[in-house]
Amino acid sequence: MLEILKVDGCKPEEQAVTRLSEEIPAIVSQLVESCQTENCFSHVSPVAIPSREEVINIIFLARRILFPGYFHPTRIDPVNLPYHLGQEVTALFQALATQIAWAVRHDCYRYGQECSQCEDRGHLAALEFIRALPELRLALATDVRAAYEGDPASGSYDEIIFSYPGLFAIAVYRMAHKLHELKVPLIPRIMTEYAHSHTGIDIHPGAEIGASLFIDHGTGVVVGETAIIGDRVRLYQGVTLGALSLPRDAGASLRGARRHPTLEDDVIVYAGATILGGDTVVGARSVVGGNVWLTESVPPDTKVLLKAPELIYVGNRK
To answer: Per DSSP, what are the bridge partners of residue 276?
Structure first.
């Protein structure tokens, strides 16, 4: 327990601080020693690790390219668009290549892998991501239209692009998924977990998601790593596409196996529904009602609803 030191003399506060500070070197020694044990998770290494801050900057840089003019501090017009995009795409390529190279090098060092030419891999993967930008823009255009068509409260495409958390989470997922396909370590998950912390929507970069996804409100939505979502699917807040209860050692034994459900085209899942299991398939055009708990497959064109609960109304005796 901390004790207040009583010091006589002309500068008691300074003397007390000095006596307390003398304990710091011993504490630092304990911290250094603990870094040699298995209970210290550290990255004390001559090899760089990806920067979370830089990865977040890459998200916003890519978003400015995918939605030009919306998130840039200066005005963009047709005359300066090629210049603007040239600068932004070059900056994205350089930043992404560096972070991917660091992620690959970190894995090689951490897990004793053979040299995989991290610098070359970083540049090649970054270039493949750049090449995918037109495809990503087309996919996000379908998501914007799905939000506008699915939400009567949406005033315009601009409103959706500027302010809808569902669209932001989907945009980050689509970036991260492309990097996941390119076998880039660490960075895809940093991206989607940032979106998760920012929006409350948790989409694993390994999930397979088709065109025209609309996540309405979104808070509490969870989409697991091996989930498959078809085209024109609509999810409401609190929806979980998760795995069934797993044994304690499942992290190693089930890594990479199908654990999450499939939603086929044009499925709607209402708020609070939980759909679990890798063998669970919700057929095309089906509707899963609010708060439903589903662990078995549903044929196409089916509605799965809970029986209406018995409500009790307690009136005011006055």
So the answer is: 242
| 199 shares its domain with 222 | no
Write the DSSP symbol of residue 180: H
Token pair for 98: 């560096």
3-state class percentages of the chain: helix first, strand second, coil last, to nearest 5: 45, 10, 45
- Is there a single domain that holds both residue 213 and residue 302? yes
Contact in structure between 59 and 99 (CB atoms under 8 Å): no
Distance CA 197, CA 72 (A): 23
Q: What is the CATH number of the domain that holds 239?
A: 2.160.10.10
Q: How many CB atoms lie within 10 A of CB 280?
A: 18
Residues 192 and 241 in one domain: no
Residue 112 has pLDDT above 70, yes or no: no
119 and 224 in a single domain? The answer is no
Cα of first residue to Cα of last residue in the chain, in angstroms, is: 57
Distance CA 43, CA 34 (A): 13
| Mean pLDDT along residues 285-289 | 98
285 CA to centre of own chain: 27
- Counting Cα atoms < 13 Å in the Cβ hemisphere of 81 gives 9
Average pLDDT over residues 243-268: 82
